[in-house]
What we know:
The protein is of the alpha+beta class. It has helices at residues 46-57, 118-127, 162-182, 235-242, 262-275, 321-327, 383-389, 409-416, and strands spanning 24-29, 63-68, 99-103, 107-108, 149-155, 185-187, 197-203, 215-219, 224-227, 254-257, 297-303, 310-316, 347-351, 353-360, 367-374, 399-401, 420-422.
Amino acid sequence: xxxxxxxxxxxxxxxxxxxxxxxxxxxxxxxxxxxxxxxxxxxxxxxxxxxxxxxxxxxxxxxxxxxxxxxxxxxxxxxxxxxxxxxxxxxxxxxxxxxxxxxxxxxxxxxxxxxxxxxxxxxxxxxxxxxxxxxxxxxxxxxxxxxxxxxxxxxxxxxxxxxxxxxxxxxxxxxxxxxxxxxxxxxxxxxxxxxxxxxxxxxxxxxxxxxxxxxxxxxxxxxxxxxxxxxxxxxxxxxxxxxxxxxxxxxxxxxxxxxxxxxxxxxxxxxxxxxxxxxxxxxxxxxxxxxxxxxxxxxxxxxxxxxxxxxxxxxxxxxxxxxxxxxxxxxxxxxxxxxxxxxxxxxxxxxxxxxxxxxxxxxxxxxxxxxxxxxxxxxxxxxxxxxxxxxxxxxxxxxxxxxxxxxxxxxxxxxxxxxxxxxxxx
Length: 426
């Protein structure tokens, strides 16, 4: 009798270790609305441009810089030109003096940062305690108290990549709404950011568009973790992570941590999840549904059950039709199981498009037009999906669960040929 060979370890997802290797992260608060950020901020901000140059001169390649739109002055919003060409020089007449926070130290830089006082910033940076050459690896739950404060930054830099805008902004709004409802915080700038609780802000380009939505969770006295593949439905879980006393990250959504090199991040993930498979389980003890890298935008068309309303929206390759519907808040798509094929509340009708062809009538030379149904190429219905469709109200021969339909260029081509996805009445 031979012993069964152990199964090979699961490959580490591309998401893990996708965060850049940074030891510190400087986030400057600008009064310019996130909706006016151009794709490259160094085309409009002399300070942003000088900071990058200053960092290289000082040998601070391990320090990241980003802008947050939480620096409004007396509620006044300043606009930039979103269409400004990448290689334009910024207007040197605009004087920028911006507050900034440095992480993982979780300290506010004492003086506003401007082009003229970068020397002071260098002195402040030099006065900080040295960080270890490598951040300590995540550890399981400890008895230490939860962090008093946490800051969450969500990338919403839509002009840099539309995926960050389409997925980041709904996540930001959901986080702020949930934090207010729980009475644990809110948006940055709403109150005293030095106070207890969680503050949420938008942030400019941080890299990794294909992993959108992206968020950074910085805890006072704790780690600085980067997360990806987030949706607005993840807001509650992300807030839980921000206030957790554990040094463990949310493993299935983890991109990396300040102070950890990408290869170290991947090694830690592989070892911990192999020894503790439960780390990849949800609160219901089921596997986290893996999310795929987001590709190109795909135009989709949904219709209401009565055909009165038409919803033209964009999805992305790599997500499901259910995720697109949820993100755009389309009616009748509840998806209460979160896309695990355990309910029928994301039920839709994939009604065929019809193309016109001509056929010869029998025993006649007359050719008559005939409508030919055109169905999209979709994955076959699985047994699990068939079981759940039994509970779908208004089910017919064109019924599918939208969580089981991937967004693809082929689906987009079918839509452009006249296909539509019909939403159920209930």
